């Protein structure tokens, strides 16, 4: 260990911070969130030795994007999570400015982390190393050091290794920026996770006819799904459009044919993965039974994140719920992982005129609405409105107070909405679209239905399931 240990400071931060965070009425009761400090990307999501492991970008020392460690939770069922020993701290020269995002693999029974060591220089320059760490018997991790330096032809923005094995060979996709400052996804291959060779660029500016595709692509994830291949990633610098790409940075998916021999991915258009206000840097893994499960960060960098009121309580951000992915009719469908149904308490049904509908407690709630629809008001702090083109989600800017809007365009038949204190996840038409958003209501927060039509409503209060 080259750099001075920050363990005492981390321990103090957790001891002081956790009680304050848990006492905050906005602290989630069934979504994973940091016990103190700032959490961002899900990392190292894997089903290994009978449990799910979810690591996360975590600055325990403050609500800012400095000092990125890897926190670690595990779960038997994707519903209840347990704290595991913190996995990585930036304590080596090669990761001194952050143990940045990455993935986990099962290397012959050894849980192995692949992450980016981020290094910034005094002159403003930076570099990045792709690094390994292996799990010890006591659940701690030992770093194995860098295995891939910055590839030639790219700036210091090369990061977020997602590694998987295919027919005996390891593959890695990396987010990158080329020297002309254009976003790319790079592919590497290896026999042993240590020696990697470049297979070239598989997506980004100038590939598959993509022009103006932004200056940096972060957090790529490439996987086979229902007879196709899907690439998920986060292109920074995509132009805003009237109804999409309205957040500072979006998360997108594209599907097509991936050819391992030719190391090429011929894909179709980009689609926004989630149309809400907060969603970024998602990562997927395979469940034990083969389902492809996605978890995202319910936050977005560089927007209004630093104005969220939970910062005053010393914590910031939460994960989305785990979602099952399917590919059908040229679309990527997302539904809440079926395990989440375990959270449901008794079921209620209601049918009648919207104006007479029960007012629901939004603290921990799931509800379903079938057509025809009405507007849904979440504690006066977030509104979901149906219009001719689809859905509009509205809330006030934390900075200016003006109304901000996000859109999902298409015909709406059905809504399934999950609420947890300061978040809502809106699943449209059994997963054709999703809108994930944070909001900061006064509690107890109420959901009200407004409109002049009849509605059919099914709802459940959800039980809490805090990380233990
Ligand atoms: C995405 C990201 C990654 C990086 C990490 C740092 O949110 O910027 O590209 O590895 O966060 O925390």
UniProtKB/TrEMBL annotation:
It is found in: Cytoplasm. Pfam families: Glyco_hydro_32C, Glyco_hydro_32N. It comes from the Bacteria. GO terms for molecular function: beta-fructofuranosidase activity. Residues 412-444 form the Glycosyl hydrolase family 32 C-terminal domain. Residues 31-336 form the Glycosyl hydrolase family 32 N-terminal domain. Its EC number is 3.2.1.26. InterPro entries: ConA-like_dom_sf, GH32_Enzymes, Glyco_hydro_32, Glyco_hydro_32_AS, Glyco_hydro_32_C, Glyco_hydro_32_N, Glyco_hydro_beta-prop_sf, Suc6P_hydrolase. It is an enzyme of class 3 (hydrolase). The keyword Hydrolase applies. Gene3D superfamilies: Exo-inulinase, domain 1, Glycosyl hydrolase domain, family 43. PANTHER family: BETA-FRUCTOSIDASE. NCBIfam families: scrB_fam. Enables the bacterium to metabolize sucrose as a sole carbon source. Belongs to the glycosyl hydrolase 32 family. This is Sucrose-6-phosphate hydrolase.
